[in-house]
Write a structure and sequence with these properties.
This protein is of the alpha/beta class and 358 residues long. It has 14 helices and eleven strands. The strands form three sheets. A six-stranded parallel β-sheet has the order 2-3-4-5-6-8. Bound molecules: iron/sulfur cluster. Iron/sulfur cluster binds next to loops.
Length: 358
């Protein structure tokens, strides 16, 4: 009612002040790279689509300032689906007797690298379960050989929790980066997701060791894992604020039929996108992938991830014959595509939204 008594100029000024105040929280996040918990909660839970569009728009703008329109491709090689652990959410957990196990030989891994090199990949990511046959020496030998043959490539390892000596020797052999998701920064929640014998404390010890040695270190979490609360997500953001990882991998939880979490609901694509955007504003220089799990839950999930501030994609270079056996969750996409097809598909998807794959 009061507007009827004001002239147009006054109404316009009030409207502008309202818009500025509404987006103030995002401007401050971008400028100060942090917010108080209540403001982070607001961004995670808000039903205001304009506010969230602005969050993603600013995150995208920051990603373009940092990386241009380039999306970095990392060639993923799934080296083994053997694992001694029993994480409750994981399809290749030791307790899942239905999995057909495989382990790539050194020669097979080098063939994947050769193929990746021919396709123009600049990074190889060797990922696997905590396989007891992957001894310190074996991994050291594989890393040394990749480093010898491709001195200009980055070598990323993602082989789980290991000893300080393992991490040190693999770094000395030529590995540059290491990915180890913390999964949740709440130790009680960690215990709900992992079996006895695994602890948040040890995960943090590994991450701190990796940083100390000099690896570019990546961490991250599942979004919407069973028992997770919004406060847990805020704790995750605080944990990463402290750790300052160079890579941040987050994706929605996707259930796997042969795990104790088979009947649990999948995580939210929208919450994952908001977190990508928040993390981009908190960590402008970090490499943040648009994960395969995003693409699994939403047909255009990876494109949405890029539009929310992600800057990395990880096409699969593993032999197609073994892909299906590395099912961490159900309905994983791109299981049947050859490496070249997979890369071509992503190139096309990125072109369609105005980016290019490097
Ligand atoms: S999440 Fe990793 S460590 Fe846990 S069971 Fe799966 S492969 Fe093993």
């Amino acid at each position: 009612m009061i507007f009827y008594e004001m002239n147009d100029g006054v109404v316009w000024n009030i409207f502008c002040i309202f818009v500025v105040m509404k987006y103030d929280v995002i401007d401050r996040l971008r400028k100060e790279r942090s917010l108080v918990d209540a403001e982070l909660r607001e961004l995670l839970l808000s039903a205001d689509s304009e506010l969230i569009d602005e969050l993603k728009r600013q995150a995208r703008e920051v990603a373009i300032e940092q990386f241009g329109r380039e999306i970095k491709a990392r060639g993923l090689i799934e080296v083994s689906n053997y694992c001694k652990n029993n994480c409750l959410y994981c399809g290749i957990r030791a307790g899942n007797k239905k999995v057909e196990r495989y382990r790539l030989s050194k020669e097979e891994i080098l063939e994947c690298c050769e193929q990746g090199d021919a396709l123009g990949f600049k990074t190889f990511v060797l990922q696997g379960g905590e396989d007891v046959r992957h001894t310190t020496e074996w991994v050291e030998d594989v890393v040394s050989e990749i480093r010898r043959r491709w001195p200009d490539k980055a070598i990323t390892l993602s082989l789980g929790e290991r000893t300080d000596e393992d991490y040190e020797r693999w770094f000395a052999a030529g590995a540059d980066r290491y990915l180890l998701r913390h999964e949740t920064a709440n130790a009680c929640h960690y215990a709900q997701l992992h079996p006895e014998g695994m602890s948040f404390e040890n995960r943090v010890r590994c991450l701190r060791t990796l940083k100390r040695i000099g690896y570019e270190t990546g961490t991250g979490m599942m979004v919407g894992s069973p028992g997770q609360t919004v406060d847990d997500l805020i704790a995750d953001l605080r944990f990463m604020e402290q750790l300052q990882p160079q890579m941040i991998g987050i994706g929605p939880f996707v259930s796997h039929r042969d795990t104790p979490f088979a009947d649990c609901a999948n995580g939210s694509v929208e919450t994952t996108l908001r977190l990508i955007a928040i993390l981009r504003l908190m960590h402008p220089e970090a490499n943040i992938p648009a994960t395969t799990s995003l693409g699994t839950l939403a047909g255009n999930g990876r494109e949405l991830g890029i539009m929310a501030g992600a800057n990395v994609l990880m096409p699969n270079l593993s032999p197609v014959k073994d892909r299906k056996k590395y099912a961490l969750y159900d309905n994983k996409i791109c299981m049947d595509l050859e490496a070249a097809e997979s890369r071509a598909l992503l190139e096309e998807q990125m072109r369609s939204i105005g980016y290019f794959l490097s």
